[in-house]
Amino acid sequence: MAQGPAPVHGPLTGVRVVELAGIGPGPFAAMLLADLGADVVRVDRPGGAGLGIDPASDLTNRNKRSVLLDLKSDEGPARALELVERADILIEGFRPGVAERLGIGPDACLARNPKLVYGRMTGWGQDGPLAERAGHDIAYLALTGTLSMIGKPDEPPVAPANLLGDYAGGSLYLVVGVLAALQHARAHGEGQVVDAAIVDGAAHLATMIHGMLAAGSWQDRRGTNLLDGGCPFYGTYATSDGGHMAVGPLEGKFYAEFAGLLGIAADFPDRWDLARWDDLRAAVTERFAARTRAEWTEVFDGTDACVAPVLSLTEAPHHPHLAARSTFVEHSGLTQPAPAPRFSATPVSVRGGPALPGADTAAVAADWDIAALRPADSPDTY
Q1: Distance of alpha carbon 206 from alpha carbon 366, whole angstroms
Q2: 228-237: per-residue pLDDT in tens?
Q3: Which residues are tagged catalytic?
């Protein structure tokens, strides 16, 4: 009996990815590829990653499968190269030179699979004076100037969790890079190395700001500009119950609606009267402090005033709009953001919970046809 077509789980169905286990931006990039339908096999190391959380709760390993290999053993690199031979993309996040010393660097992998896209994720990049240095998200943001823009002018810069560096400047640029290189490999039969550095991505994210700086419409001081909290109608304000409201009516018609609902339209009709910005900020602060977050949410509900309550991580999944769009989903008992973006012809979903280290070795050995990867206690045939 003929088998039907393989199930489609997203636009990357059929793409095979090998992820060499690490922490931070590499696993998140591999998760995004897995969310989009790729068959991602994570090569976990005995003992786990240094800063890893409980594998059962590590959502960045959802939709993946895991095999356990000791890349420092005699046979580990050989098994990894067998996976590489059958893969379209490899993702690694070691310091420069580590993969080469293990025998699984770009030269070894591309010799085995000339069409391979070899994705490298680091903070500083593969070359340059700091390439060998340790670092984390906040240091990469610091050197690119990006961190200097975040926070109040009279206080130290504020660390934006690790979202801006690791994931925006790192993971997302790596994914764009490996998918662009995959397109090239399929069109020309030529693999290549993608050097994704967080410093490069974080700098690139600020392209518009650099343009504004060159045009004289941005000051190189945080908290003094239109989009960094310097503007009284673009920022956050405390409410009487300790909550906060986010305010952003930049356009004239939106500001008019905002000012009317807040009750300050008569006193501040011109939002661009810079001489009165301090007074405007004081008035907005006073008004929001007079009511609770829930009360102000009701006032602005259904309007174009560009005002929203600042929700916590646990509150966000219950917001009516996000609930209606299923922006958050529950799988394996864990509430988590749903895959994004969305596709009309090849929908994506959370198909499996976090991959547990080594749990899928036998299945991967069968599906990828690697007999040497098969666990010793598994059957000889499939």
Answers
A1: 46
A2: 999 999 999 9
A3: 136, 166
